[in-house]
Design brief:
Structural class: mainly alpha
Shape: elongated
Bound molecules: zinc ion
Length: 108
């Protein structure tokens, strides 16, 4: 028994399985065309999800940065510290998502 990637959700399943145990995709009875279509769709959805996440990350960064810049909180204030943490988090998250997107696109 070997493990393969489910063409629909990308999780590991047995190559003997007729149905994916994660998403119930009928691996056994799917034609190669079905599988190709499902794979393309799940890649697309995954890329879309990452793009949405990088939008949120960007907003976090801009919001946090904007607050630090234009808000009148002092550097010692907890509001300022939260804004700083959010902008750093947003920035890092954004970079991570860009890298993930490159990998998703590369593997298609
Ligand atoms: Zn699946």
């Amino acid at each position: 028994m070997a493990l393969i990637d489910c063409p629909a959700c990308g999780k590991k399943i047995s190559d003997k399985a007729q149905l994916c145990s994660h998403c119930n995709f009928a691996v056994g009875s799917a034609s190669s065309e079905d599988i190709a279509r499902k794979t393309a769709l799940s890649k697309y959805l995954q890329a879309q999800k990452i793009q949405n996440q990088s939008m949120v990350a960007m907003l976090l960064f801009v919001g946090g940065f904007g607050f630090m810049y234009w808000g009148d909180a002092d550097q010692e204030d907890w509001q300022f510290k939260i804004a700083f943490a959010l902008s750093v988090l947003g920035f890092v998250w954004y970079i991570v998502n860009r890298v993930r997107l490159i990998f998703v696109k590369k593997s298609s």
